[in-house]
Amino acid sequence: MKVKDLGFFGKYVSVDAEDPVSEAAKEMVQHRALDVMVVDESKKVVGIITYRKILEEVVAKGLDSSKVKSKEAVSTNFMTISAEDDVMDAILKYTRFQIEVGSDIPGLIVLAGGKFAGVIPIADMYAAASPQALYQYSMMK
Fold first, then answer.
1. Residues 6 or more apart from 63 whose CB is under 8 A from it?
2. Domain containing 133: what range?
3. Residue 80 is part of a domain; what is its CATH number?
């Protein structure tokens, strides 16, 4: 099964890289999102703003969230996959990435044709794969 077959990843919340962090926070609250994609004018992902990043990069430093640009408060430690990737391959890549590098982003950035197509939570990918299939697949690699 390919990532694109899951169909969950098309929905996401995003802000422009030049938007203030306060706008990203408003979007997070309005959409009940844990994170917001920060994209440039060509829709390329610059990074991801999480609640934690807002706390670390703005609140804890006593900065004004209406004056800090979103691109200045992003996490850039994330992994991308193609919509054409196999779900099992994507799960294994994500697991290796978390072990080797680590990330505060609980999901994968999905690219279609090299462009940002959305985000898929790793939990949704695990739910799509049965435990037996995961085990068998991991033993083959």
1. 57
2. 3-140
3. 3.10.580.10
